[in-house]
Amino acid sequence: GQLLRMNKKPGDWNCESCKYLNFSRREMCQRCGDPRPASTYTPPGSGSGRVISVLRGDWYCTCGYHNFASRANCLKCGASK
């Protein structure tokens, strides 16, 4: 099996489904493919640990997931904008 990375860096996140530790740059879990929870997103290179704010054009799906304005479909459930 794959080894979990033990050196967690700012912005890295654990998957809610399988608990795998993912690099901060990943939007989906490397192991199981589940999307990163919106509450754990930090802009790459920021190192500040800040949660990114909702920007103009971003939208919330009926499933409750926060999607970026550039997405036509929900990253979590695939529903149309």
From TrEMBL:
SMART domains: ZnF_RBZ. It comes from the Eukaryota. GO terms for cellular component: cytoplasm. The keyword Manganese does not apply. The keyword tRNA processing does not apply. Residues 9-38, 55-81 form the RanBP2-type domain. One of its GO terms (molecular function) is zinc ion binding. Keywords: Metal-binding, Zinc, Zinc-finger. It comes from Eleocharis dulcis. This is Putative zinc finger protein.
